[in-house]
UniProtKB/TrEMBL annotation:
GO terms classed as biological process: collagen metabolic process
Species this protein is from: Micractinium conductrix
Sequence ranges assigned to domain Fe2OG dioxygenase in this UniProt record: 75-221
Gene of this entry: g179
Domain of life: Eukaryota
Name of protein: Prolyl 3-hydroxylase 1 isoform X3
UniProt feature, compositional bias: Acidic residues: 591-602
Upper classification of the organism: Eukaryota, Viridiplantae, Chlorophyta, core chlorophytes, Trebouxiophyceae
Region Disordered, residue ranges: 431-458, 579-602
InterPro entries tied to this protein: Oxoglu/Fe-dep_dioxygenase_dom, P3H, Pro_4_hyd_alph_FE2OG_OXY
Pfam family, any one: 2OG-FeII_Oxy_3
PANTHER family to which the protein is assigned, alphabetical: LEPRECAN 1, PROCOLLAGEN-PROLINE 3-DIOXYGENASE
């Protein structure tokens, strides 16, 4: 069988999680209007997401293999999360249509969102017609065009499946027969898989609106093209920190929402660069570009290049970024937390997932994660610096992941308790920052009067002194009224308690212990996850190797048996021929020794 369409191969929540991963990591450049995140992008940028991705990949691969009747232990050559944006399309082709793609056996595309709801257009079509063949099969030559079809098609199929000839020959596209022939047109829905042999003709109509997401696999039998071998090498190699931020075009949704800053805001922070809060990553890149231009003395040059180029050029320049506690972001975070149905990291501006993604969840309005508005005061966290937006996002995200447990790293829904604890911690940080502002320990951004930073001890002392003064004033007022009542004693105790708490918080914030700990545990966690993924993949690889060795053994045996039969046939043929040979040898003049006597009569 050359092609199959299956539904429900991946559950809706996994589809949503993969969409989230694609939105976070996909980069442009694969094809026009298409952004992609390969399994390697995931491994290097967010290894925690490998677990769900590899699990989904295996489910898709197994389903495709079974449906195509190709249970040969196929290896995966390419795994990608692909996002097709308006304008993306592909004409009639097959997936092994280049010399360097010869190793490809089959393709499996599992859609993650719904045509007609999340996006428009993007219909997948099987080329089950003469019209689509256009000589790909090689049997029709130049005559294979519109209407006529190739000679291969006319005579009942070229055998490669490109023109659907195999269906006519076999009567059914399904090996087992009796099952329905897959449709020629496939409309994407979350979890719907379209699988086909690498020589099967197909095309995709243009996406006209929205974003079409798919988990795409290319399958091979050639171990040299096995992506797992390379993946293992990446996972067991040295940790690579993402060096350069990705071009801004990759992160901007059509409505201008900047995904990177959304993710920062989601963790309750904003990014600041040289004392300014960033409202978009593009702003950062433009500023960096302007700086670079000024440094090079060529002020006007930037005007002559397009914004995209400007961004690409500045993207490679690491810029020091700082974190700022962002009360507005914190509010948005709380709102998200309080939503009845956690929205699986659906961000503002993204198409509503519920209903359309087949998940059946209630459609909650997306939280507005607008990046920091100008003049909103935010507290700069001293001592932490990142060299790119991406780096800051990843560090924060892993913090969120660690504190929020399942939030972004696994397929489970974030649990309310983990949100609560994260929320509390964020609040503590924000509260600490507010108190520090009083002591002048943090710089204030967004307002005209930036506080001056002072030492940790003096900040703590200042706040402590203020609390003591407050307590003393309260106590004094009570004393003036007469005797110290139980109530005022309680008040004093409470104030002392508050004072202690404040001092602790200030210590934690000023000493950056919280963030240092976060960083340390983030690194530790990364190392552990890396080990775990490595083990898992090694195990899986072992299993796959055993399976495919068994398959290969089986095939070898079959081939040997074939050879043996050939040999036996030959021998049989020899035996069958022998009498004739002997007989004809007797007729040959030179060999007729026995007849010499008679011949002598002449
Ligand atoms: O996304 C799809 O539906 C198929 C894409 C395709 O044909 C390809 O990438 O070669
Ligand atoms: Fe294709």
């Amino acid at each position: 069988m050359q092609r199959a369409v299956l539904t429900g191969v991946l559950p809706p929540d996994i589809c949503r999680e993969l969409i989230w991963a694609a939105r976070s990591l996909a980069v442009v450049g694969y094809r026009d209007c298409v952004a992609s995140a390969t399994i390697f992008d995931v491994a290097s940028a967010a290894p925690a997401l490998l677990m769900p991705l590899v699990a989904a990949r295996e489910a898709v691969r197994a389903a495709a293999e079974a449906a195509l009747g190709l249970e040969l232990g196929l290896l995966v050559e390419f795994t990608g999360l692909l996002c097709w944006r308006p304008g993306a399309s592909i004409g009639w082709h097959h997936d092994a249509n280049r010399p360097y793609l010869r190793q490809r056996c089959a393709s499996a595309v599992c859609y993650l969102n719904a045509a007609g709801a999340d996006f428009q257009g993007g219909t997948f079509l099987f080329g089950d017609s003469h019209e689509s063949c256009r000589g790909w099969c090689g049997s029709g030559g130049g005559g294979a065009g519109r209407g006529g079809g190739c000679s291969g098609c006319r005579s009942g199929g070229c055998g490669k499946g490109c023109c659907g000839g195999s269906s006519r020959r076999g009567g059914s596209l399904f090996a087992s027969g009796g099952e329905p022939v897959p449709p020629l047109e496939v409309h994407a829905a979350p979890g719907t898989l379209v699988a086909y042999g690498a020589h099967v003709q197909h095309r995709v109509r243009p996406v006209t609106a929205g974003e079409r997401y798919a988990l795409t696999l290319w399958l091979t039998e050639d171990p040299q093209h096995d992506e797992d071998a390379r993946l293992l090498a990446v996972l067991t190699g040295p940790v690579e920190r993402p060096a350069a931020p990705l071009p801004a075009s990759m992160w901007l949704l059509p409505d201008g929402t900047d995904l990177r800053l959304c993710r920062v805001a989601m963790a309750g922070f904003a990014l600041a660069w040289r004392g300014r809060l960033l409202r978009s990553a593009a702003e950062l890149e433009d500023a960096a570009e302007a700086d670079a231009g000024a440094a090079a003395g060529g002020g006007g040059a930037a005007n002559s290049v397009g914004a995209g180029q400007k961004r690409a050029a500045s993207a490679v320049q690491p810029v020091p970024l700082q974190l700022a506690v962002q009360p507005a972001a914190l509010r948005a975070w709380r709102e998200w937390q309080a939503a009845p149905e956690p929205r699986c990291w659906e961000l503002g501006g993204a198409p509503a997932a519920a209903g359309t993604a087949g998940g059946g969840g209630t459609a909650a309005a997306p939280v507005d994660f607008q990046p920091a508005a100008p003049n909103v005061p935010a507290e700069l966290v001293a001592g932490l610096e990142f060299s790119s937006v991406q780096e800051a996002v990843l560090a924060l995200e892993h913090w969120v992941w660690r504190h929020g447990g399942a939030a972004s790293g696994t397929r489970e829904r974030p649990s309310p308790t983990s949100h609560e604890s994260l929320g509390r911690e964020m609040e503590r940080l924000a509260a600490g920052a507010a108190h520090k502002r009083k002591g002048g320990a943090l710089e204030q951004l967004g307002g005209a009067s930036g506080g001056r930073r002072s030492g940790h001890a003096s900040a703590a002392e200042a706040t402590a002194a203020a609390a003591v003064a407050e307590a003393a004033a309260a106590a004094g007022a009570e004393a003036q009224q007469g005797e110290l009542t139980d109530r005022s004693e309680m008040h004093l105790l409470n104030l002392r308690e508050t004072q202690r708490e404040l001092t602790n918080q200030i210590d934690a914030i000023t000493g950056l212990q919280v963030l240092d700990n976060v960083r340390a545990s983030f690194l530790e966690r990364m190392a552990r996850v890396k080990g775990e993924v490595g083990d898992l993949l090694a195990q899986t690889e072992g299993m796959l190797r055993t399976e495919s060795t068994a398959t290969l053994d089986f095939r070898k045996r079959a081939a040997n048996a074939g050879r043996l039969i050939d040999i036996l046939n030959l021998r049989t043929a020899d035996v069958e021929q022998r009498p004739e040979t002997l007989f004809s040898a007797a007729q040959e003049p030179g060999a007729a020794d026995e007849g010499e006597g008679e011949g002598g009569d002449e």
